[in-house]
Design brief:
By secondary structure, the protein is of the alpha/beta class. The chain has nine helices and twelve strands.
Length: 257
Amino acid sequence: MSDAAEPRTVTAAVLLIGDEILSGRTKDANLGFIATFLGDIGIQVREARVVSDERDRIADAVNALRGAYDYVFTTGGIGPTHDDITADSVAYAFGVPIGPHPEAMEILTLHYAETGGEFTQARKRMARIPEGATLIPNSVSKAPGFQLDNVFVMAGIPIIVQVMMDALSDRLEGGAKMTSRTIDCFVGESAIAEALGEVQSRYPKVGIGSYPFYRDNQFGTSLVLRSVDSSKLDEAFAETIALADKAGGKPVERAAT
């Protein structure tokens, strides 16, 4: 009897859109949240890009990423101002028209009626959705995001990204979950580099990262091991902590967070 098939690896990319990120005026707070959220359901973020508010650059990035990964998540550029061009750019990338979406218009009409705000032409821009897309609910400010094929288009405001990701949970299919174990040891990278490379060569399915630190007036190294294969992860971990101990690093496993 053959072994059960291994869980499928499901991948994603994140596309952060906005001149304000590239200029440094806005510090991104979305990538980390999205990567953690997806990792918890077995979707591995393999790439992240930042692009300016230019149609061709956005469209090129969307097309490159949607062909390379199972899912693509974009943030930014779906507000009411002239430079919010993400929806138009995604429509251009897919070669489909864009226009007022009946359900989005209804949601925003009701929202502004209830809040006493004027549903201006600028605000109506937020109801323009590419043809064939389905809406992503927004429980915070009501202006929806949208999904077109494997591309999920969301606002750039972190709290809205978070509620939109929650709303997407039942649309996303995860696969093999990545797990990790971390060793902190008070020894320099150079002292363990050769032995660590040998461990890595024996465990190609385990990613091993080495990160120097300075703590308690001492230099040290954090070793992070990651894999979807828990048995291989444990084997590689045992060898790694042994080599760090042999090098005099007094290694300890960091508690999972």
